[in-house]
């Protein structure tokens, strides 16, 4: 008789995948014409990453992709979301493509399709070619035009075989951690520039969407992935509600306003008027940004808890986005972030699946009729092999069970959620944290680069094969 499954089951067509990004896993940073991105420069700048670590080798996916795809197939994954290294395709961020760079992604896509795994391409996961940053980066309008050219090149090369496309991953991080707090590449700390960057990332999404559709079959889906914040006020006091509204505008409205509705929130303009006059929003920009989407990707890890500024709160901001003397929240010095209560991951992020349900239901209302995908969700733990070489991570299994149950509850409540991408397929370079934080379902020994699936990988693979969640205690 078949083994009884958990009562939490999913629609038959639900897509079960895992996600990675180019700079975090590929390595081969100087091969086949690739030139430095802002993350190469940033990670090689003393003091910017934990232990001075970088992605020069990362987990060597560039040379081991066939084995990695075979492992995905062995686990039973139905989809794989990966990103393209812009500087591997266009070393200067402009002009003709380097075919050797594109060939790597052609081979990867072919390998995935041969194993029955659906590829999902993210065009931009934070690794801007350094030459474009030298010319001003995302605060400059020209970068959006260059992105559209790049999108057209990649769409023409892969659009016949890849049906799922994501223009940008977490543009909030690119804009506000890269140009506001400086904890991400390129490490600038300029509040006005961070808001300009946000607008030009929006413009890049819109122009890139149009460029993709000009060269791809109409059946293909174009989306973007937002790390929209679940912002909760400490109390219902009007000052705390106003604080939550301001952070919601800076985290969410600054992107979904123009992308979904063709407007920036008036409250965002008002809150930031002492930082910028928004004169870089030119006639026609909002229409260019407001392209119809085929789907929306949501990335979720933990909620935010805020209040009006409290003078007795000292120390770094408890917003979960790294330590810096500079805030990623322009014009929000009157807001205090609080640690949310509860169990935490190695990132210090509170585990709260209710936030994922809340986020899904919000966007079901915000964009009715638009299919949703959870394009990132996962947890970092201090995983270690046991004496037999096995890696047991029951905390991650419990995390996944809780969050996937929240997804299923949202579907029951009427949300059109089509799939889930676990972050991440395997341990990798975790940006400014170097190799300290392990998000992978597959353990990587960084001295040998040997891959070992953790218990959570087998648990998740079983869920992917059956469409139902095994019990948390399942011995796999």
From TrEMBL:
This is Beta-glucosidase. It is an enzyme of class 3 (hydrolase). The lineage of its organism: Bacteria, Bacillati, Actinomycetota, Actinomycetes, Kitasatosporales. GO terms for molecular function: beta-glucosidase activity. Gene3D superfamilies: Glycosidases (3.20.20.80). It comes from the Bacteria. PANTHER family: GLYCOSYL HYDROLASE (PTHR10353), LP05116P (PTHR10353:SF36). Its EC number is 3.2.1.21.
């Amino acid at each position: 008789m078949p083994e009884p499954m958990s009562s939490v089951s999913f629609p038959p067509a639900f897509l079960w995948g895992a996600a990675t990004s180019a700079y975090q896993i590929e390595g081969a940073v100087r091969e086949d014409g690739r030139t430095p991105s802002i993350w190469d420069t940033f990670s090689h700048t003393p003091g910017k990453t934990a232990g001075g670590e970088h992605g020069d080798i990362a987990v060597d996916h560039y040379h081991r992709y066939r084995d990695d795809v075979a492992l995905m197939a062995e686990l039973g994954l139905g989809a794989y979301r990966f990103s393209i290294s812009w500087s591997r395709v266009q070393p200067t961020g402009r002009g003709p493509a380097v075919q050797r760079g594109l060939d790597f992604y052609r081979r990867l896509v072919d390998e995935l399709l041969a194993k029955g795994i659906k590829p999902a391409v993210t065009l931009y996961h934070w690794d801007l070619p350094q030459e474009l940053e030298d010319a001003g980066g995302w605060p400059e309008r020209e970068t959006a035009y260059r992105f559209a050219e790049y999108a057209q090149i990649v769409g023409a090369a892969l659009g016949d075989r890849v049906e799922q496309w994501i223009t940008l991953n977490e543009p909030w991080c690119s804009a506000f951690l890269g140009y506001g707090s400086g904890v991400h590449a390129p490490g600038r700390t300029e509040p006005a520039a961070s808001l300009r960057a946000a607008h030009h990332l929006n413009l890049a999404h819109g122009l890139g969407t149009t460029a993709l559709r000009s060269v791809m079959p109409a059946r293909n889906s174009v989306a973007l992935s937002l790390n929209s914040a679940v912002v909760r006020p400490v109390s219902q006091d009007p000052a705390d509600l106003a604080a939550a509204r301001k952070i919601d505008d800076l985290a969410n409205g600054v992107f979904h306003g123009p992308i979904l509705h063709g407007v920036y929130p008036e409250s965002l303009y008002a809150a930031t008027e002492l930082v910028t006059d928004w004169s870089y929003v030119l006639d026609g920009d909002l229409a260019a940004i407001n392209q119809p989407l085929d789907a929306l990707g949501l990335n979720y890890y933990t909620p935010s808890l805020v209040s009006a500024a409290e003078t007795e709160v000292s120390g770094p901001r408890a917003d979960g986005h790294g330590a810096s003397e500079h805030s990623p929240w322009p014009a929000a010095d009157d807001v205090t972030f609080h640690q949310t209560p509860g169990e935490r991951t190695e990132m210090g992020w509170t585990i709260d699946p209710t936030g994922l349900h809340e986020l899904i239901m919000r966007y079901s209302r915000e964009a009715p009729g638009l299919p949703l995908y959870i394009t990132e969700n996962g947890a970092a733990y201090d995983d270690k092999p046991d004496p037999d070489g096995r890696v047991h991570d029951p905390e991650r299994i419990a995390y996944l069970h809780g969050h996937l149950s929240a997804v299923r509850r949202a579907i029951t409540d009427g949300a059109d959620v089509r799939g889930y991408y676990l972050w991440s397929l395997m341990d990798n370079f975790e940006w400014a944290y170097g190799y300290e934080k392990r998000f992978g379902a597959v353990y990587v020994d960084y001295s040998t680069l040997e891959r070992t699936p953790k218990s959570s990988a087998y648990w998740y693979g079983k869920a992917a094969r059956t469409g139902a969640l095994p019990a948390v205690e399942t011995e796999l």
